[in-house]
Amino acid sequence: MTPMRCPYSDTELNAFVDDELPAEQRTGILDYLNGHPETARKVESWRSQRQFLRGQFDAVARETVPVSLSLRANSAIKYTATRLASPVPHAPVSLSIVPPEPMPLPPHLSHSSHGADRRRSWSIFVYGMACAFAMAATMSLILQHGALLQSAGMAAEGLRQPTTNPVLAAPVAVAQAMAPSEGRARLASTVALAPDHENALAALRNYRSFSALPLEFISPNADVLEKSLSQRLGYRLKLPRFADSHWKMVGARLTAENSGPAAFVLYADHGGALRGATIQRGWSANGADSLAVAGLHAVVFGYHDQTVAMVSVAAFDEIGLSDTVSDTAR
Amino acid sequence: MDLRQEIETHTPKLRRFARALTVGSKADGGRSGDDLVHESILRALKFARPSGMDVRLSLYASLVGLHRQQSRAKSHLLQNLRAGHGAHAAAMGRDISGTMSGQTLVDVALAALDLEERAAMLLVVLEGFNYADAAVVMDMTRETLQANLVRARATFARVVDGIHAQDSQSGARASQPAKRVRHLRLVK
Predict the structure, then answer these.
(1) Fewest beta carbons within 10 Å, which of A56, A234, A264, A325?
(2) Residue A157 in this model has a pLDDT that exceeds 50
(3) A-chain residues near B149 (CB < 8 A)
(4) Around A136, how many Cα atoms within 13 Å sit in the side-chain half-sphere?
(5) B84-174 has which fold?
């Protein structure tokens, strides 16, 4: 005797599993499944695939989105640059850092039984401590050299040379006393003057990505760099060349800005000093929607075994960027 | 909600989908999946509003389209993985004890699917799209989507069941008591 053939196709049964059938057809299939355990098992195995797949991949959806994919990360950077450039308040500044949320305990003190939670708590704690250190160090600098912050020329210096930048002097000294990677991370965190805990973490993550991968493209040929960047960005980017100055383009990488993806370009002079700028379409010095230089933030990272601190806006002020922007925008 | 906020809302799930879609290239720690997400976001920033398409659908459609392009270039690799419905891949994915971890099992089962089947299954089963939206994302008719889905589910179940059966056989062999060695005698 041959087994009775199922009156429902696999397509219908799949639609049943996915709730894509009208109610009456659904009821009919339910009745059929009650009397046919073999088909019911098959349907149940399909249904269990959802839990199976989600069980394996849901962890990805719970991960922190990498900074390269975060459109929000740079809002903190922009705010930071504004804060650095703005006059220092004369009101007393408290050095205690109070995060908006209770600081999670390190894993060995946590009562959480879930390993993932504990690891997440620990990473938040580490970030929190780094940010607290950053803010405390910068606040102490502000107290010591507050008036100097208002000066326009926040020239950045390589760590191997004595720096004259009051903003970076103390963190640089701290960084020099530490191992290179740890030093860079701490140094990066000192410029994360974010308005709150969340933004501080976002800023720190962004700087850390710069530390991990300062440059994506390295070429002495500016045309090649410009072409590579334009291809990645999806629009034609014109980079300032500084033909009459001693600044030469060294390399570049993509970065995320508030208004969209942008290019971070590194220049070097004959003496090996480095300057960087964030350049993107849409922000123009002369109002035209062509080339714009968005010097948003200080960037600190290692380059060729040097820990380098750079401040984009002020650096380009020094070499007359505003004139150059008008030229290249045409 | 502005476009950027909306994209950010969808990014975690988009990463999950991309990670599952690119199981054949998982050796890079999910970087190829994130690259796809990155490109999809850039496209959505550019085209989502002008096209009038729902942002979520636009993101997933870009990602599927990009993955199709990339997969054509390395289709021979996927063919290798599919050979024998994962028998070869299953052998690769086993740990020393001969059993397979959950993640590897899913990877092998997904790698055994055709690209279109995998995308259809992940959209509906993992991401919870309804058939109409999934068909829009994959740029195909609802009927074609359903056909892909039926094949995907059947293949997936077959591969998973096959691997479980192999595991239980090897487990049973391992649990059998060792045969008595005849030339040794127990002495007091």
Answers:
(1) A234
(2) no
(3) 14
(4) 13
(5) Arc Repressor Mutant, subunit A (1.10.10)
